[in-house]
Write a structure and sequence with these properties.
This protein is mostly helical. The chain is 54% helix and 6% strand. The longest helix is centred in the last third of the chain and has 19 residues, at 330-348. The two termini are 27 Å apart.
Length: 449
């Protein structure tokens, strides 16, 4: 991988197709049937030491993302039921049922679909994205306590009852997600928001293998997340316990849940500083000019290095800079993305973090006329994308592989791989028009196309 990334980092930026040429390419693309994951268990992720898992659980359970401390532990007591309201996209029901199976099997939670006509513990309502973001602009989806539906939320959204920080018991929650996005985005919202409706309300950037992390590198609940939820619903815990009471019983719970955890470590992972979080969040802010996002990401990199974080926080800072700076500082951007790939690989191996960082160097290698480098990079990243059930990432890697195969003369193999990439893209990107455009843009990376 080292040699391939060094070669890829020297590649020039591809010249984009003109609008007219792109539209012509898009119109000619045919699409197969959509592929989706079968709901099977994803590959287990590495687990931390028991001491680290204990600290993670306390930080996740007794703080909000804002840093506000929660006075008591809360969860649903007794069986949990889930209902879908209104007209939901077809894939939502299947993905929800798959998730509920996993929550019962892996987290040991008594959770199921609500019976017809019965009130549910958790309701799910899909609405147009514009309507959701009209009230909560920065959220792709969100969960609110003590409301039944969107209308109920609109009438209560400034009430104390919808404040997670004031909650002393969980009896009802509503998940609101967009109806007009890709099946993968809807599924990702289901995983993250139902997990937060059930358990931890905090997100921690230091967590390398979790959806309880705003970096979005993991899109579905991991085995680490299921361990956190299993701990949340352990019989030794109960709503109303304070942090000291929870901490007292955690060692026995953690020892049972984390049997395959890492050996004990001398030092626990440090907290992410507020300055670093502000810089990183600014680098991800939609609508902010690229140069300002790149500047904020550069600040996040400096702060991560100063804190000696050789973990996902440094890697994600580098990746964020690379993505923000591609159009304004292409050479620096690619160097940062390549470094991110090395940071991720050294810390976690060939996991989904590394796969995310491989995409751009693989594309640049293809553009530079080095399809063999693209093939080596993509082959190393595909298993992580598949096992992490990230269809958008998987489809992009497959389409890059198809173009590299075409460039090396393996035309029939390229055709089959391209069709597979299109099928996954329909789940990952959604609309046929968007998929066709994505396929055409990847094809345009080949020299002379």
């Amino acid at each position: 991988m080292a040699a391939a990334l060094v070669v890829a980092s020297c590649a020039p930026v591809a010249s984009p197709l003109t609008d007219a040429a792109l539209e012509a390419e898009v119109a000619a693309i045919t699409l197969p049937a959509m592929k989706r994951f079968d709901g099977g268990l994803p590959r287990p992720v590495p687990m931390p030491s028991n001491a680290q898992l204990t600290q993670d659980f306390l930080d996740l359970s007794f703080q909000l993302e804002s840093g506000r401390v929660l006075p008591v532990f809360t969860r649903f007591e007794g069986p949990v039921t889930v209902a879908v309201l209104g007209d939901a996209p077809d894939t939502l029901a299947t993905d929800l049922d798959d998730l509920l199976v996993r929550l019962r099997r892996e987290a040991g939670i008594d959770i199921s679909r609500a019976q017809e006509g019965r009130a549910a513990s958790i309701t799910i309502e899909a609405l147009p994205r514009r309507e959701l973001q009209g009230l909560v602009p920065q959220a792709a989806c969100f969960v609110v306590p003590n409301v039944e539906n969107w209308k109920d939320y609109l009438s209560k959204r400034r009430a104390r009852s919808t404040d997670w920080g004031a909650l002393t018991a969980r009896t009802r929650a509503a998940v609101f997600l967009p109806s007009d996005v890709s099946p993968q985005e809807i599924r990702d919202c289901l995983h993250e928001e139902i997990a937060q409706a059930l358990g931890p309300l905090n997100d921690l950037y230091r967590l390398p293998f979790s959806v309880f992390n705003d970096d979005n590198l993991h899109t579905i609940l991991t085995s680490y997340d299921m361990a956190i939820l299993r701990m949340t619903y352990d019989r030794r815990l109960a709503t109303g316990m304070d942090a000291e009471q929870v901490e007292t019983v955690l060692p026995e719970i953690v020892a049972r849940v984390n049997k395959r955890g890492a050996p004990e470590q001398d030092q626990l992972a440090s907290d992410s500083s507020e300055a670093w979080k502000r810089a990183l969040n600014r680098s991800l802010q939609p609508g902010l000019p690229a140069r300002l996002r790149a500047s904020a990401a550069a600040r996040a990199i400096d702060l991560a290095r100063a804190a000696e974080w050789n973990d996902t926080r440094l890697g994600y800072s580098l990746l964020s800079f690379g993505r923000a700076a591609l159009g304004v500082q292409p050479e620096s951007a690619i160097a940062a993305i390549v470094e991110a790939a090395f940071v991720f690989r050294d810390a976690y191996g060939e996991e989904v973090h590394t796969a995310h960082a491989i995409v751009q160097p693989a594309a640049f290698a293809l553009t530079s006329g080095k399809p063999d480098v693209t093939l080596r990079l993509v082959e190393g990243a595909l298993p992580a994308a598949q096992k992490g059930q990230n269809a958008a990432l998987l489809s992009t890697l497959l389409l890059l592989r198809a173009e590299a195969l075409e460039e090396t003369g393996r035309v029939s193999e390229a055709r089959a791989v391209r069709e597979e990439g299109k099928a996954w893209a329909l789940y990952g990107f959604g609309s046929a028009a968007e998929v066709r455009r994505h396929v055409a843009e990847v094809a345009a990376l080949r020299p002379g196309v």
